[in-house]
């Protein structure tokens, strides 16, 4: 689709199937725009004839690569059904009277964050006359954490409103989560975070509907509202360390401790796992694997389920205690799982780990419920079939071998000699636990950040 040239005649739009067709009456040139590529309709009072400016997304080739660009077209008439949804009336509250930061994680996913900013967000903000923002690009894996501690936290402490437009996957979000939750200072004004998903999995963005349609992210930026971000806290035995440098090195976990705790602590907003999920995330976290995007997870899973050396699929050994809520007694209680051998152990606050991988079909966007997904060892063919059902709207959760339920938290006591099988995953961060060590996860009672979203219960089944 090419944009029509400048035309002195009127331009009228009609809905044809799932497209908006804009026709230049004088030349009869037509521009056809998929409705789910529309961003907004701006009133254009300076133009006597073309009353509106229509902003939309267009994909086209540039330098042998297909990229998405923001485009605009001036039009005279737009159907009321489009105006009722897309007409821009005012700057959204999360951009009014507050500090606005745009943070680009340059290494996130396949490294396309800067292109998306220059091709889409920068012109979009310019059309809205929102040019008063501070741009930050990551220089190292620690940039977002450092920025959160040096800039975002001091403003939040003093009650200064902030909106952070974050080009990242789940990793950038969890960096901000950890900076805020490990601080002992009171947060008077929780920042609003607007996610622009540029990572590999993009679990949070997928779960709050930002990848539902091509236009969802920018529409949420305009029409969304801030919602408190639920989190969890993971405590570890003293010898736990974070795996870095593509698994080649380890580093100490955060030296700050949760209130009343003397163990290393990490906060998360997406997933805490052990077993197959954690191992495949760890094994696929290399530059070579990341080139394949989401496919890297399937590639790593295949090697774990069908080891190339001919060995059997590993059975993960450990004792798991589940913390549950007794609705009658109105209190928590602990239940020890009868299995001591495991294949898949995962607790999540989101519904999707990827756009189409529905890990928890009953989770609503940002509902704060921690869901357990667990199954014991089984033949690799059955594991493949079971996890394949997650791509069918999460049907795996209703299969007999799967335990799928609400929990308040859990504790794993590891019974593995080989460190490879003592690796756990917290929102993509890989942590190795010492022999006979433990990991304990609980829902966090504090909410210190907002996420901007348009997601509703309808997103659960779409």
Automatic annotation (TrEMBL):
SUPFAM superfamilies recorded for this chain?
NAD kinase/diacylglycerol kinase-like (SSF111331)
Q: Name one GO biological process term.
A: sphingosine biosynthetic process
Domain (DAGKc): residue spans on this chain: 95-238
What keywords tag this UniProt record? Kinase, Transferase
Q: Which InterPro entries did the record assign? A: ATP-NAD_kinase_N, Diacylglycerol_kinase_cat_dom, Lipid_Phosphate_FormReg, NAD/diacylglycerol_kinase_sf
Q: Name one GO molecular function term.
A: lipid kinase activity
Q: Name one Pfam family in it.
A: DAGK_cat
Q: Which domain of life is it from?
A: Eukaryota
PROSITE patterns for the chain: DAGK
Q: Which PANTHER family match?
A: DAGKC DOMAIN-CONTAINING PROTEIN, SPHINGOSINE KINASE
| Protein's name according to its UniProt entry | Diacylglycerol kinase catalytic domain protein
């Amino acid at each position: 689709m090419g944009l029509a040239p400048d035309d002195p005649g009127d331009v009228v739009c009609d809905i044809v199937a799932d497209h908006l067709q804009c026709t230049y009456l004088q030349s009869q040139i037509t521009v056809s725009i998929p409705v789910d590529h529309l961003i907004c309709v701006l009133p254009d009072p300076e133009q006597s004839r073309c009353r509106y400016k229509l902003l939309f997304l267009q994909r086209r080739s540039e330098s042998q690569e297909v990229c998405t660009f923001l485009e605009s077209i001036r039009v005279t008439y737009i159907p009321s059904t489009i105006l009722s949804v897309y007409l821009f009336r005012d700057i959204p509250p999360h951009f009014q009277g507050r500090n606005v930061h745009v943070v680009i994680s340059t290494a996130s996913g396949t490294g396309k964050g800067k292109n998306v900013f220059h091709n889409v967000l920068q012109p979009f903000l310019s059309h809205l006359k929102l040019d008063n923002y501070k741009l930050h690009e990551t220089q190292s894996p620690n940039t977002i954490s450092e920025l959160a501690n040096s800039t975002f936290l001091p403003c939040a402490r003093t009650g200064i409103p902030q909106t952070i437009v974050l080009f990242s996957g789940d990793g950038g979000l969890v960096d901000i989560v950890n900076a805020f939750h490990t601080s002992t200072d009171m947060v008077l004004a929780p920042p609003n975070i607007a996610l622009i998903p540029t990572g590999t999995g993009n679990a949070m963005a997928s779960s709050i509907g930002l990848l539902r349609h091509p236009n969802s992210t920018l529409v949420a930026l305009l029409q969304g509202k801030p919602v408190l971000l639920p989190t969890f806290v993971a405590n570890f035995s003293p010898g736990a360390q974070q795996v870095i440098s593509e698994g080649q090195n380890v580093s100490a976990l955060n030296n700050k401790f949760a209130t009343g705790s003397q163990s290393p602590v990490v906060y998360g907003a997406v997933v805490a796992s052990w077993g197959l999920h954690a191992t495949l995330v760890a094994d696929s976290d290399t530059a070579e694997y990341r080139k394949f995007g989401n496919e890297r997870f399937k590639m790593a899973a295949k090697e774990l389920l069908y080891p190339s050396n001919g060995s059997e699929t590993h059975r993960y050994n450990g004792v798991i205690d589940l913390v549950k809520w007794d609705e009658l007694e109105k209190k928590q209680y602990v239940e020890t799982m009868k299995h001591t051998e495991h294949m898949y152990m995962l607790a999540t606050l989101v519904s999707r780990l990827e756009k189409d991988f529905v890990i928890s079909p009953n989770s609503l966007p940002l509902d704060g419920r921690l869901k357990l997904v667990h199954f014991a060892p089984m033949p690799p063919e059955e594991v493949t079939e079971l996890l394949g059902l997650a791509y069918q709207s999460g049907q795996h959760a209703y299969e007999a071998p799967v335990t799928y339920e609400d929990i308040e938290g859990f504790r794993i006591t590891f019974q593995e000699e080989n460190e490879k099988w003592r690796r756990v995953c917290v929102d993509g961060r890989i942590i190795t636990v010492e022999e006979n060590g433990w990991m304990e996860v609980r829902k966090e009672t504090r909410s210190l950040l907002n996420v901007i979203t348009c997601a509703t219960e309808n997103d659960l089944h779409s």
